[in-house]
Amino acid sequence: MRATFVIFRFDPAIDKRPRYQEYAIDVESTDKILDCLNRIRWELDPTLVYRASCSHGICGSDAMVINGHVGLACQKLVRDYKTANNFVIEPLPLFTVIKDLIVDMNPFFEKHRYVRPYLTSDEETPEKERVQSAAEQKVIEPALRCILCACCTSSCPISRANPNYLGPAALLRAFRYINDSRDTVTASRLAQLDNDDGAWGCKTMWWCTDVCPKGIPVTKCIGQIKRAIKLQEKHA
Amino acid sequence: MKHQYDVVIVGAGLSGLRAAIELGEGTRVAVLSKVFATRSHSGAAQGGIGAALGNEEEDNWEWHMFDTVKGSDYLGDQDAIEIMTRDAPKIVYELEHMGVPFNRTPEGRIAQRAFGGHTRDFGKAAIKRACFAADRTGRVILDTLWEKCLQRGIHFFNEFQLLSLIISDGWCCGLTAYELATGKIHVFNAKAVLLATGGAGKVFKTTSNAMASTGDGMAIAFRAGAPLEDMEFIQFHPTGIYKLGILISEAARGEGGILRNSAGERFMERYAPTIKDLAPRDMVSRCILKEVRAGRGIDGKDYVHLDLTHLGTEVIGEKLVEIIEFAQTYLGVDARKEPIPVQPTCHYMMGGIAADVDGRVVLDDDNTPFPGLYAAGECACVSVHGANRLGCNSLLDTLVFGRRSGIEMRRFIDANRFGDIPDGLENLEAAKIRALMEKDGTEKLGPIQQEMQTVMMNSVSVFRHKQGLEEALKTIRVLKERFHDIGVHDKGCCFNRELLDVLELQHMLDLAEVMTLGALHREESRGAHSREDFPDRDDRRFLAHTMASYQEQTRPRLFTKPVNITRFEPKERKY
Q1: How far is B75 from chain A (nearest CA, A)?
Q2: pTM across the whole model
Q3: What is the ipTM of this complex?
Q4: What secondary structure letter does DSSP report for B144?
Q5: Which of B146, B170, B370, B386 could disulfide-link B361, Cβ–Cβ 3.0 to 4.6 Å?
C-alpha cells in the first residue's frame, strides 16, 4: 500500500520557520510508524531526524504527534489509523523544537528532578531486604510502568498554560515515592506539592491518562496525591 | 572543548551507572551516553536478576555457580563466576535498599521465579532464583540507579557519541566524543575510562536489541589495541516475536508458558526431559529451528507457538504485563486466549572486550592490564557467560562487575596522575569528521548495512558451517571496502543522525568480521556456537577463549587464552 507522510521539518541552520515535507513510501498495515520513518530516512531522505532506540515502547525516546495524537512511533502501527495512507507527523508540543522531530526535553527532566525522585529513608538499613507487603508494593505498580516519554506532560493543557506547573509525569514520579512504604519523608514530599504549580495545578482533564502509551491512570494518581495532602492537613 | 574528570564512563546502562554510584562522592565522574541515559538498552531487560536469596525455596550460590558454569558449556571462567554468584545476594539487597520495587512474596520478601538453566542441587530440578519486578526488571533498576546518580550529582553528557580513546605510551588517558546537538568535538582527559557501552545486536537482521546497540565501545577499544574475546558466541533468544524480533521474556516460560510445534506438541520434553521449556537459551533456540526444519513449524513456516493460555489472569496481570501488551500491540494477539508466534532473535553478546574480574581491560593471555582502561557489562567479556549466558545472569553481570570496576577505578585514580593529552586532538577528530562529510560517496549506507545484517543472519546465527562462514567473511570484507565510498548527504552539525549511522556501521563491520573469524576458527560446537560440520564439543582443541587483536593494515590476529577451571570439571551438558 502506498502511503503519504507529511512531516514537520525544521533545521535551525537553514530554515527561518518550520516547513512540512511530503514523502511517499510503500507500507504494510502492520508496519510501525517508526518503521515508516526509518524507511523514509534510509531510502529517501537521510537528513530527516528523530529520536528512537528500543523500537518497542520501553525506552521512551520516540514520542511525537501522529495525525494529531501524541504517541510513540514504535508502538503505533499503520493499521491503528483510520486514514491509513495519509500521515502527518509532528514533534511533541510544549517543548522547543531543536531539529525536525527532536525537541528540548531538559525542562521536562528538570521537573522530574525537582520532586526528589529517589527513595529517602531515615530508618536503619537492614542487612537483607526491607520487608514490604505485596499489597504495599502493588500501590505504586501503575507508576512503575512510566517510561518518561513525556506524552502526558506535552499533552496537558495546564502544562501548556503554566510553564511552572510540574506536569503529570513529574507528579506521577512523586506519587511513586510518596506511596512507597519504604520511604519515610512523605510529609515533606506532600508539602512540596501543596500548591498550584504542584498537585493543585491538575484540573482533572484526563488528557494525560488518555495519551499514556503504558496505560497508566495518571490523573487518578494525581488525585490520590491531592487526597493525601488533604488528609495530612486534617491530621495536622 | 576540553574537560577533565577523574573517571569518564561511557554508557549509562546498568553497569555504567552502578560504577558511577560506587565511585561515590569526592570523585569527579562524568557519564557519557549516545542516547539520553534512561533510554539505555538495559531498560528493555524484562525477566529478572539471578541471586540465590532462597526466598521461595532453599538455594545457595554454589548451585547458581554450577548452573552458570554448565550453562556456559564450561567456557566461563570459574573464578569470575564464583565471584558473581557469591556477590549476587548482596547486589540485590543493595538494589532494594536504593529503592528498586521488586515484586514480593506473601511474607514481604523479594519474590523469585524460575528461569532457564537455573536448577537446585546441581541440576536436579528447576529452581526459583530470578528476582523480578513484573516483566520490567531492567527498566525499574535503570530508573532507580539513574535517579540515585541524580541525587549524587553525577555529571551526565547525554547524546554524546564516543569517537576514540586517547592512548599515550600504552595508557588510556581519556577520550574524544561528538556532541550530537552541536556537532562539536569534546576532549575528555581522565585518569580512568570505563566502557559500558552494551551489545551489538544490530549486526544481525532479526534482533531484540535497540537501534543504539551497535557495539561502538567494543569496536573502538579493539582499534585502540584491546583484544576482543569469544566474539563468536552470540546468543539467540528462543522467543522473539515472529518477524519482529521483539523479546518475549523467558519469564513467560518461568511462569509456566509452554512451547508447541504445529502438532501442538510440547517438543522441549523430547530434548530436555528434566527441565523442558526451561532449558538454556542456546538449546531451546536450536530445538525450535530443528522443529522447523523437520516441517513442524506452525503452518510450515519458520516459527513455533509460545502458549500462555493456561496461566490464569493473576500471573499474566501481575507478572507478565508488558509482554501481553507487546503481543496485543504488534500482532493483535490476545496471549491470554491464543498462543504467541515466536522464533529465535539475536539477543546478547557473550563475548566482548577482554576484562578481568575488577573490570580492567586486559591485553593478552596473561591478563596484563591495559592501564587506565576498564570495561563492564555486555561490552566486556570477563568471562562469566562463556559459550552461553543463562537468563537473568546479565543484569547480575552488569551490576556485580560495574560495582567492582568502580572499586578498582577508585583505587587506581588515587594512585595515579592524569596522563598528558597530545595537542591538536580536537582538530584531528574534527578533520576526520569533515573528511567523512565532504566525501561525495558513490555508496549508500542503507544497502551496505542491510547486506551485512542479512549475511550475518543467514550464515553466522544459530547454525553455522564452514562454507557459509567463509562466504560471509568474504562478503563482510567486500562491504568493508565499499564502506570507504559511503557519502554523507546531511552536511549539518545539529543532530546529524546520518553521520552517526555511518560511524556505527563502521563499528559493526569490524565486529562482524571478528565474529565470523572466531566462528570459522572454532571447529567444534559449544554453547551458542553450533557448527553443523563439527557437531561435538572438542575440549582437547577448543576449551580455550578465542582472542582477536586488531592489526593495522592487515587482518585481525587470533590467539587463545586458557579457561580458568576451579570447582567443576567439564562434563557432557544434558538437561
Answers
A1: 30
A2: 0.97
A3: 0.97
A4: H
A5: B370
